[in-house]
């Protein structure tokens, strides 16, 4: 959808050029114009959602719709910085709107208080990218499949305690450009010698290289057949957080919520049972995910939200601006190790 944006909508005013001067210098005017013509739907306004909203608004997208049907609680208010301290009981999207808009008046920020699951299919078609947080697996699969039919970029992400992830599906053909050092042809003069004829890289000049990459769907990435010999051989390079995500999404489906600190004992036992069931279904040993994981996957940790939200926001900007190589397609963050991992699960 981003490729069809009319140029009339992408005109950068003098005021916008001044506002986005640093970004234009960083990734170029054309990339900023593409951002300026992009509309994004962000679902979920907790800690991670607030970080993503901030990054997109500051980057200068054309419009951002904040969608969340849940009410503000003390826990949700403490998890993010866009909700005022006196907003308990209000809708989370509506309560986040004022501070979000103040970040950049040039971006059209809207609040939608409906549940994302109640939205008809064509609701999603008005956007160039959809970012889903705090959604069920079935809903993410549904929206990803819908958007794939219209070439709309889809991103999913969540934070569970010290752990977080991001997934992106940019379609079967995502086009982008990369800036590369310019290669200068060698001289053909006879007295220059063989070394002079070899291509050389000129560090003072660069050129823009067009590239295309393919992504797999969210459904395909989660439904890998681990009994397959090729998958088994790759098992050692798959981060344990991939399997932790499967457990936590199953918990969310079964309970209609995420693990809660005030029911730690009960939820911990359920998580262990789900771990056993999920890994057994995959044909894998429960030892792959040690019991200690239950101690570190409750609530949203603000520093983890900042890291994952930074990566998620950056990937959205790269996809919409069509500048620089995107991640394919999972990013996992383990706050205990302080490291992130990117893994590719194949194309569609």
Mean pLDDT: 89
Terminal CA distance: 19 Å
| Radius of gyration, CA atoms, in whole angstroms | 22 Å
Low-confidence stretches: 2-8
Question: Which sequence of strands runs across the widest sheet?
Answer: 3-2-1-4-5-6-9-10
- Give the overall silhouette: globular
What is the β-strand count? 10
Report on the biggest sheet: 8 strands, mixed
> Which band does the percent of strand residues land in?
15-25%
Category by helix and strand content: alpha/beta
SSE pattern, N- to C-terminal: HHHEHEHHEEHEEEEHHHHHEE
**Into which percent range does the helicity of residues fall?**
25-40%
Supply the number of helical segments. Answer: 12
In summary, what is this structure?
The protein is 37% helix and 20% strand. It has helices at 14-19, 21-27, 29-36, 47-59, 74-79, 92-103, 137-148, 218-222, 229-234, 240-255, 264-282, 302-321, and strands at 39-43, 63-67, 108-112, 129-133, 153-160, 163-169, 174-184, 200-213, 330-334, 339-343.
List the main descriptive attributes of the protein structure presented here.
single chain, 348 residues, alpha/beta, two-stranded antiparallel sheet, 37% helix, 20% strand, disordered N terminus, nucleus, ubl conjugation pathway, UBQ/SUMO-activ_enz_E1-like, SUMO-activating enzyme subunit 1, ThiF/MoeB/HesA
